[in-house]
Amino acid sequence: MAYNDLRMDNQWLPFTPNRAFHKDPRVFVAADGMHFTTHDGRQVIDGISSLWCVGAGHNRKPINEAIKRQLDTLDYSTAFNASNDKAFRAAEMIAAMAPGDLNKVLFCNSGSEAADTSMKVALAYHRARGEGHRNIFIGRERGYHGVGFGGMSVGGIPANRKVYGAALLPRVDHLRFIHDPVNHAYVHNTEPVWTEDPLLELENRILPLHDPSNVAAVIVEPVAGSAGWYVPPQGYLKRLREICDRHGILLIFDEVITGFGRLGTAFAADHYGVQPDMLNFAKAVTNGVIPLGGVVCSDRIYDAMMGAHGSAPEHAIEFFHGYTYSGHPVACAATIATLDLFREEQLFERAGQMAPVLGDAMHAALKGLPNVIGIRSYGLAAAVELASLPGLPGKRAYDVFLDCFHRGVLVRNAGDNLVFAPPFIVERGQIETMVGTLADAIKRVA
Ligand SMILES: Cc1ncc(COP(=O)(O)O)c(C=O)c1O
Q1: Of 51, 105, 405, 446, most Cβ neighbours within 10 A?
Q2: Residue 46, strand partner residues
Q3: pLDDT of 310 strictly over 80
Q4: Which atom of ligand 1 is nearest to the CA of 52?
């Protein structure tokens, strides 16, 4: 299959160097299992689950069939003052999977919307309890929570923020990043044990500066994904939970990447044994097939929001927020089929089993190669970090990414990291191909 007459004049590509892309386009026209077919008829392994989405692999019939059935039954229905049967069922399934009393699902369409939704819930919740002064958010350096103004403000990736200046939310602070390149450059499927406590800074500097009584929420990715798969030190999330509890601050886990199996459990919250007050999800919830995101809120938050309106007439809306496509029936049908498929094929367990295979392969093949300054594997994802070219941050990893692509492997470049996060169905031989191709590319680009 060759598409020689592809016109590329009109699509402005997201998070992509557009000018370079047009000279060397990477265009997919089909996908099945672990592989894409490109416009020029080549096979490429999807080493990143198409950005952490396609846990069950591509072209899964039960999901496709569920979507087709839904289209022929209820294509769409409004989400406001009405709902649909699939949305209720999908919410029930997600709540059943989520830990503890995380039982109330607010649907949206993306991880960015989930971030902003969770931040709005935090403000509304505190106000409902008579603590409207709690309006400071704390994110983390190099965190990623999408591209809305809320998510961008609590996010900490400099390139995403630098041109927006005063348009970013004003009352936001950031935890320090969770990486120790001196003592823990290499993380091999275990939690790094730090001798220093990175959260002392929160307790001793950030909270006293703002006064904890003014802080609405802390939002973190349990494992920092978009920055390049950085693993928190042992005990970090538990301690963060304790600090938040001590000061009445809500804790939001952005599980857009870690949710639905990446660490071998439904959520990172399960893996780390820490329950947040809100849990944001998107991506793998539909196997990436149709956009859907959401925030699972605790009963406590929901009850407070409802209780605050105890004296209001029953026709009064309790939370002025939602999207036209919140709980879209087709996306929810895809969700139901995806979650069933994950369970039937025990794909989270499979992710857990394949995690050491990927980690071992990465450490064995890449340690000691030119310019390699770190390797981090945890769950079914792993990153290799390269020394940046002087004055050209990101260029070395970008060149490695291109080299891999031309040899049939899709890897994610993030700064000067190269990240693999394959579908949970990945086979050992495919991991060897992916990692071997990456090793060769690193040598060639050196
Ligand atoms: C942790 C996290 N939050 C939010 C987002 C944004 O999701 P979306 O691109 O669906 O808006 C991402 C995307 O990669 C993410 O990794």
Answers
A1: 105
A2: 410
A3: no
A4: 14
